[in-house]
């Protein structure tokens, strides 16, 4: 790798390193849990097509018999593995956001005119950039693993309805989680007209995936770019005031017929 470029961890950092292994007294559930946990790393390194059942059971320390008593195919294991990885990403996100809030406070001037007196405060902007960098750095060690799994999931879901339904479910879960984090981290602001927090969340998830992909493919340290890009995206699509928040709620509920205007 060229000098000055960040080293890519090998093997991929374990996204599930701190996930409890499960209830040891419930043998079947524990066997299934260990197979799924071990498969995350295998699928990240070899892909769904490249990984074999022998690879999966070897990583978990079981035999093929244990596999077939819990799963009918690799695809079934992969769907469970991606769901587990997504749940862990969400857990890490909540933990780091809580830490970032404690260190930096809410994003008081994330939208133009959102700081005190309607004038953007340079100190607040610096704090917000630092918060964004903290969040990106916290997710980065696991970003490559999750992005590899997500890429596999997208590729296979385009050809399989069963895989597609599961991926849609996990994407919606992640999107709604990020939207909730945005709404609570930047109080008093909301997406611009026609957008809701889930739209903005999907945009930020796409930015994150592209940054991690760029770093891994091009060997470029994207730390500074991550901070400015994520914060710049928020500033471009958020605006201050209660009307913005109300508009975001209505945009998200319009299709369900739940949006009501005040008389």
In short:
Residues 52-71 bind DNA. Residues 23-32 have a biased composition (Basic and acidic residues). A two-stranded antiparallel ribbon has the order 1-2.
3D architecture notes:
- By secondary structure, the chain is mainly α.
- The protein is 68% helix and 2% strand.
- It contains nine helices and two strands, in the order ααααααβααβα.
- The chain has a two-stranded antiparallel ribbon with strand order 1-2.
- Helix 1 crosses helix 4 and helix 5 packs antiparallel against helix 6 (161-185).
- It is elongated, with a radius of gyration of 21 Å.
- The N and C termini lie far apart (63 Å).
- Mean pLDDT is 77; it is low at 1-12, 114-121 and 243-263.
- Residues 52-71 bind DNA.
- Keywords: DNA-binding.
- InterPro entries: Homeodomain-like_sf (IPR009057), HTH-type_TetR-like_transc_reg (IPR050109), HTH_TetR (IPR001647).
- Residues 1-32 are annotated as: Disordered.
- Residues 23-32 have a biased composition (Basic and acidic residues).
Which features characterize this protein?
two-stranded antiparallel sheet; elongated; DNA-binding; 263 residues; HTH_TetR; mainly alpha
SSE layout and pairing:
Blueprint: H1 27-50, H2 53-60, H3 64-68, H4 74-104, H5 122-157, H6 161-185, E1 189-191, H7 197-218, H8 223-237, E2 238-240, H9 242-253
Helix pairs in contact: 1-2, 1-4, 1-5, 4-5, 4-6, 5-6, 5-7, 5-8, 6-7, 7-8
Count of alpha and pi helical runs? 9
Q: End-to-end distance, in Å?
A: 63 Å
Q: What's the main sheet like?
A: 2 strands, antiparallel
So what's the overall shape?
elongated
Largest sheet, order of strands side by side? 1-2
The stretches of 5 or more residues where confidence is low (pLDDT under 50) are 1-12, 114-121, 243-263
Strand count? 2
Determine the structural class based on helices, strands and strand pairing: mainly alpha
Radius of gyration: 21 Å
- SSE succession: HHHHHHEHHEH
Strand content: under 5%
Q: What is the mean pLDDT?
A: 77
Helix content estimate: 55-70%
């Amino acid at each position: 790798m060229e000098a000055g470029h960040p080293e890519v961890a090998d093997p991929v950092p374990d996204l599930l390193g701190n996930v409890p292994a499960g209830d040891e007294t419930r043998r079947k559930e524990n066997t299934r849990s260990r197979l799924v946990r071990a498969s995350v790393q295998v699928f990240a390194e070899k892909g769904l097509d490249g990984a074999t059942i022998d690879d999966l059971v070897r990583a978990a320390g079981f035999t093929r018999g244990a596999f077939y008593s819990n799963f009918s195919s690799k695809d079934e294991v992969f769907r469970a593995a991606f769901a587990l990885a997504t749940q862990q990403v969400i857990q890490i996100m909540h933990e780091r956001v809580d830490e970032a809030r404690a260190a930096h406070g809410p994003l008081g001037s994330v939208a133009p005119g959102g700081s005190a007196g309607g004038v953007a405060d340079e100190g607040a902007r610096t704090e917000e950039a630092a918060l964004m960098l903290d969040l990106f750095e916290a997710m980065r060690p696991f970003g490559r693993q999750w992005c590899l799994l997500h890429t596999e999931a997208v590729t296979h879901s385009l050809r399989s309805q069963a895989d597609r339904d599961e991926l849609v479910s996990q994407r919606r879960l992640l999107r709604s989680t990020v939207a909730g984090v945005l709404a609570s981290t930047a109080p008093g602001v909301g997406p611009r007209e026609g957008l809701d927090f889930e739209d903005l969340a999907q945009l930020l998830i796409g930015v994150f995936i592209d940054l991690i992909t760029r770093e891994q493919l091009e060997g470029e340290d994207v730390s500074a770019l991550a901070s400015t890009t994520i914060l710049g995206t928020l500033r471009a699509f958020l605006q201050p005031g209660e009307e913005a928040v109300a508009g975001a709620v209505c945009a998200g509920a319009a299709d369900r017929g739940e949006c009501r205007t005040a008389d």
